[in-house]
Amino acid sequence: MKFSYEWIKELSGTTLSAEDASAVLTAKAFEVKESGPVLDIDILPNRPDAVSHLGVARELCALSGQRFAAPVYEYAVSERPDVEIEIRDAAACMRYSALIVRGVTVGPSPAWLRERLEACGLQSINNVVDVTNYVMLELGQPMHAFDRALIDRIVVRRAETGETLQALDEARTSYALDNSMLVIADGTRPLAIAGIKGGVGTGITDATTDVLLEAAAFGPESVRATSRALNLRTDASIRFGYGVDPNLTAPALVRAGELLAKAAGGTPDSSIIDVYPSPASDRVLSLDPEYVRALLGIAIPNAQIRSILESLSFEVTEHEGSMNVRVPTRRLDVVGQEDLVEEVGRVYGYDAIPAAAPVLPIYDQHSWVQEDTAVAWDEASFIRERAALVRLLAGAGYAEVYNYVFLSDELRTLLKLEHLHELAQPQSGEYRWLRSSLVPRLLVNARDNLRFAERVRLFETGHTFSRIGEGKEDVRVGIVLASRAGGDELFYELKGVVALLLERLGITGTYSDDAAPFPWDASAVHATLGGRQALVRADDDTVLGFIGAVHPRIASALKLKGYAAIAELDLRALVRFAQEEREFAPLPKYPSVVRDIALFVDQGVKIDDIIQTIHGADPSDLVDDVDVFDIFVPTGTEKLKAEGDTPEYGKSVAFHLVFRSDERTLTDAEVDAAEVVIKQALQEKLNARVR
Questions:
Q1: Is 75 a domain residue?
Q2: What is the mean pLDDT of residues 51-73?
C-alpha cells in the first residue's frame, strides 16, 4: 500500500527521515518495498489496524521509542435520528453509523486534499468523495457518501436473487446480485453493495446540498466472498477484507464532518445516527512474564515488558507476578498470550536475542507415558531405524515426498475406500477424509511428476488412520516407481528395491505371497492389477507390506501418462524385525559344498514353494542356503520338454544348493544322499522334473 511520509510525520511528530523510518518498520513490523516521499509498505493481512496513515504513525512511534498522541474525536448519538437505519444481518454488519452534513457545495477539492490523495494513488473526484477517501487513508475506515435528498431510510440486508445494481463508476457497470451478498437498501431497492461499491441512484452530484455519510463495520468474510463473486475489488473491499475495528465508525464520521466543513463549506449535525446491536469491548489477557522469557529465550525484565506493551497502546496492570493486558478493539490480531509475546519480541528486536543451540528430545515426545524411559528408548530406536531406511531409499535413487494426511472424495470413490475417518469440518472436498494408506497420494505425486520426467521414483513415510475394529494409527513407508514407457518390468524392479531394502535392514527369510485374500489396505488392492500384486511376508507369516503394478484403469482415471508400480510397508513391523534379526553369528568352521539343481515345473509353481520343499525334505538339516540363479519361461509357441518325456512344463528353474554342517566336514556320500531325497520330494510334491 502507498503511504505519504509527510502525512505520517504530521500524525506521529517523528523526526526520522523516510529512509530511517523505512529501516525501523522493515526490521520490526512490515517490509517497506520503497522509501522516499511515498512509502510502499507490505501490510500483513493480520494487521488491519495498520492499513492507515494513523496506524503506521502509531507503529513507527512505538518502534522508535517516541511518544504517540492519538487524536480524540468526541461525538454524541442522536436520540431522534433524521434517517431510520435497520440492520437485518448483524453477523455481516456489526455496526452502521451515519452523519448528515448540510449545506455543502460540491466542487473540485482544494490542492492539499488532491495532492495527498494522488500521492497515495487515488484520483480526485470531487470534494465530498475525496473527503471520504481521505478519512479512509488517514484512519483506515472506508466510507460512502449518499445524497441525503434521495434517501428515505437505510436497510442493511441480503440481496434478493434477481436484483441488480448499477455501480457508481465510469462505466456504470450493472451487477447481478444474489442472496449471498449484503447490500445497503432503502425500502424497495439496493443502493450500494455493502463494503464494496455505491450505486448510481443515490450518488453525489453537483446538485447535492445535504450529504449522508456512511461508516460501517462489515464482516470481512461477507465482503471477501461478494468481491470474489462479482470480480469487483475496491480500496474499501480490501480494507474490509482485512477487518475493521467496529469502534472506528463514529470517530471517522466526526473527522469527515470536520473536513467537509473545511473543503465543502458544510455544517455537520451535532450528533450521529448509530445502530450498534452488540458493542465490542477491549479484551483483557493474562500474561506471565516468566512465559515471555522462556518463549523468547531472553532475560527481559518485567519493567521492559510493560514498557514495550504500553508503547504499543496496550494498558498493563501487574498483580501478584502476573500482568493483565487490555487489548484495544483495533488489534484484531491479538487474541492470546503468545500474540503478546510476539509483540514484545519484535519490538525488543529478534536480532538482539542471542543465538543458542536448541535443546531437542531425540524421541517423539508424544510417546512419553508416565516417564517410562523404556518407551522413550524404543521410540529413539524407531527414529534411528526410520532414518536408516530413508537413507537406503535415497541411495537407491528415490526422492522423499511429504503429503497431507487427507484424501478427496474423488480418490475415495476411485479406489473404493471404506472405513475412513471423515473430518467434521473439512476445508474443502480435497481434504475430507483421513487416509488409511499412503498409496492414493503417492499415485497423484507420480502423475504430477511424470509430466516433467521420463521416469519417477518417490517414497514417503507417514501416519495412516484406520477405522477397522477400534481404529488404529500406523506408520508406513510407501514407494512408487513410474515411467512413461514400460510394463511388467516396473513391478519386478520395485520388487527388487523392496528386497534390497529388507536385506540392508538385516531382515531375512521374507517371501512374496500372491494368494488371495490380501489382508492389506483396500486402496493398495484396488489400485493394482491382479496377477501383479503380492504381500510381503516374514518367515513367521507376519504381513510386512504389499507390492503391486498399478491397474491401467486407475492410471487412466488419474490421467497418469505411463505405467507405475506401488509398494507399501509397515514401518514399525520393519523396525521390529530388523532389531530381532540383528544377531551375531560366528563364521563357519567347516567348508560348504555347493550343488546345482535344475527343474522343469508348472507355470503356477512358486519359487518359494520349491525352496520350502527343499528345506522340508532335507533329512539331516544339511542345506544351509538355497539361491535361485536362473528362471526361463518360454514365449509364443515354445514348449518345455525333458528329453524323451511327454509332459510339457511352464518354466525352467535352476538353484544353487549350499550344504554345510556346524560339526564336521561333509563327505560326498552325505551330500549325494541328501540330494537324492530332495529331488525325490520335488518330483512327488510339485510334479517337478529334474533336468
A1: no
A2: 93
